[in-house]
Amino acid sequence: MITALGVGGLATALALQDTLAILFSGINILVSRQIKMGDFVKLSTGEEGHVVDMNWRNTTIKTPTENMAVVPNKTIASAIITNYAQPFAECFISIPIGVSYESDLDHVEKVTCMVAKEILQETEGGVKNFEPYIRYGGFNGTSISFNVILRIKAVTDQQLICHEFIKRIYARYKQEGIIIQLPQ
Q: Where found in the cell (predicted)?
């Protein structure tokens, strides 16, 4: 009888293994408060978006394409998570550009920073009091490469800021005679 109870207990434990793992993962996630409702997260498994629901069994993430990804808490507990809302939502973005070797680099820097400042001031999602800057990164086969560093209010603002910056910098470089060099 003791053997039968032991075998029965073992069978029950094996049958409930996944359920218990999900339950304990869910409790751990809810208690640790590393992820909260509304946070923008990216999991190492590929899912990313705003957390819209959390319970003991799973977490629902609203993706940038407006779909809902329901992720078991067991998966979240074992994944590497980037939480873009902690410790605060503001973050930097870096936009790479390359200009021709004939460019006056001081002039390029001045024009680029001026356009970047305008974008941060005029586009929703830009941090208005941030002074954008550039950092030259190297000599490529056909260009001098650099990155423009901007600060945004939330990671979800990066596409709009980048979009507006590229449109504006392209037009301004044409006016100024600065040649954007493409890799060949």
A: Cell membrane
- Total Cβ atoms within 10 A of residue 118: 16
CB atoms under 10 Å from CB of 75, counted, come to 16
The pLDDT value given to residue 72:
84
Largest CA distance in the chain: 91
Percent of the chain scoring above 70 in pLDDT: 84
Q: CA–CA separation, 139 vs 145, rounded Å?
A: 6
Last residue of one domain, picked from the residues 29, 55, 83: 83
| Domain ranges, residue 10 | 2-83
- List the structure tokens of 179: 């040649």
What are the pLDDT digits (tens) for 43-87? 888 888 999 998 878 889 998 888 999 988 788 777 888 888 877
Q: Are 111 and 172 in contact (CB under 8 A)?
A: yes
Instruction: Give the pTM.
Output: 0.68
pLDDT at 165 over 80: yes
> Does residue 51 sit in the same domain as residue 112?
no
- Residue whose C-alpha is closest to residue 83's, from 25, 130, 126, 37: 37
